[in-house]
Give the backbone structure.
Amino acid sequence: MQRKPVKRFWKWIRIVLILYILFGIALYFFQEKLLFRPQKLPPDHVFSFSNPFKEINLLVNNEKTISIIQFTVPDSVCKGVVLYFHGNMRNIERYAPFASNFTKNNYEVWMIDYPGYGKSTGKRTEQIIYEDAKQFYKMARARFGKDSIIIYGRSLGTGIASYLASVKDCRRLILESPYYSMEALFRHYAFIYPVNWMCKYHFSTYRYLQNVDAPVTIFHGTNDEVIPYKQSKRLLKLAKPGAELVTLEKTKHNTVNESPLYHQKLDSVLQH
């Protein structure tokens, strides 16, 4: 009489175990599609933006091109440059509307597309993205002093921006909706899996932030449904003295630019 319930129990255990393994395999092999959501553009695509800009297609080799858009301001009023590392969606065209946040404060803002995004081509790995970031910085240093360079990261770009600021000098590092690390973010969504060894990308923001000597400003919405606000609170504890976390009440991941406090604080940072 006891056999059927026992068999049924073990049957469900097997089903749950199989589902756990299948979802784990899917997470491991498809994580790149979850993390990166690029939209490619043909080489002859014509950009059209409301702000004045220059298009740079940096040919690294026969298989690799780095696409950069430089939103410019007149040399007579230019205070420096913001190196902008965008989020994981589409390409520069999605983030171009935010350029005016910086150009109105007389900063040029340069945006770079990661491999596979927009017109950027070539293989994409974490290390390659870091090397592209250093090449991006090298271009800026050819025109601007280190005290005139601000490094800005949004969402996915916060780990990249933090890395660059940890190995290169800059006036300030600004992070919008950062994650503690990619493992920490994956753990938030898939806590039942051993994400530490499953993650192919690490983007260890927390580790890099500890080596950033420049002032750090962090913006994060309390209602962020993509990257939990608490990850910024953890980061603040690791940053060097003087770092500031600007809490945007009731702000979601993609509504930061709608926050008056965000603009007030950003303008203050850029004007000093």
